[in-house]
Amino acid sequence: MAPKLIAFLCLGLCLGQKMCTQAGAPDKLSLSARPSPVVPLGGRVTLSCDSHLRFVTFTIYKTSGTQDREMHTGRSKDFTISPVTPGHAGTYRCSGSFSHTSQWSAHSNSLTIVVTGAFRKPSISAHPSALVAAGARVTVCCHSELAFDDFILYKEGHTQHSQELDEGMEAGTHYVEAVFRLGPVTPAHTGAYRCCGSFSHSRYECSAPSDPLEIVIT
């Protein structure tokens, strides 16, 4: 079961003022989360809307279906959420505007905030070992006493990151274990990994994160 990569990386910048129209430009801003987009319940996270252009006003939206809820509009590109509640879990975007025009840039790509701590933490393990030769593959297992609809594997310390979902899971079926196959690995895979589980009715409200699993590439 190869993992399905769900990219939440927000890439692209506005190439010029004339391209930043209200209708949307092909190039976008970059939205990131500090210290991480995976946030414990009651914790703190800062969303940052970045661009090489000198926007003077920034807006950060929380999206739900086709609806956008404005969370922040102002001169600061940063928006801090504290304390984080289950209602803050979900998908965010941002856009920018120049002082001498009412036109806004295209929205950034989406950034998903996952809120952890709703349920007991799962366990995590690596097979055959967490010590992996470069170019080899490693299997990471996430196991829980609860039968979740989804499991997410993520790497700690990334303000923008991808999340691995077990492709073998089917909607409407509950699982106590997920299997993630990583590789061929490179030195970039080195780091601490955690996993958490969630139910389909609140996908981005996760269990407490597992203990960290340190993957070392030799």
Automatic annotation (TrEMBL):
<dbReference type="GO" id="GO:0005886">
    <property type="term" value="C:plasma membrane"/>
</dbReference>
<keyword id="KW-1015">Disulfide bond</keyword>
<protein>
    <recommendedName>
        <fullName>Ig-like domain-containing protein</fullName>
    </recommendedName>
</protein>
<dbReference type="InterPro" id="IPR050412">
    <property type="entry name" value="Ig-like_Receptors_ImmuneReg"/>
</dbReference>
<keyword id="KW-0677">Repeat</keyword>
<dbReference type="GO" id="GO:0002764">
    <property type="term" value="P:immune response-regulating signaling pathway"/>
</dbReference>
<dbReference type="Pfam" id="PF00047">
    <property type="entry name" value="ig"/>
</dbReference>
<dbReference type="InterPro" id="IPR003599">
    <property type="entry name" value="Ig_sub"/>
</dbReference>
<dbReference type="InterPro" id="IPR007110">
    <property type="entry name" value="Ig-like_dom"/>
</dbReference>
<dbReference type="InterPro" id="IPR036179">
    <property type="entry name" value="Ig-like_dom_sf"/>
</dbReference>
<dbReference type="GO" id="GO:0007166">
    <property type="term" value="P:cell surface receptor signaling pathway"/>
</dbReference>
<dbReference type="InterPro" id="IPR013783">
    <property type="entry name" value="Ig-like_fold"/>
</dbReference>
<dbReference type="InterPro" id="IPR013151">
    <property type="entry name" value="Immunoglobulin_dom"/>
</dbReference>
<feature type="domain" description="Ig-like">
    <location>
        <begin position="26"/>
        <end position="112"/>
    </location>
</feature>
<keyword id="KW-0393">Immunoglobulin domain</keyword>
<keyword id="KW-0732">Signal</keyword>
<feature type="signal peptide">
    <location>
        <begin position="1"/>
        <end position="16"/>
    </location>
</feature>
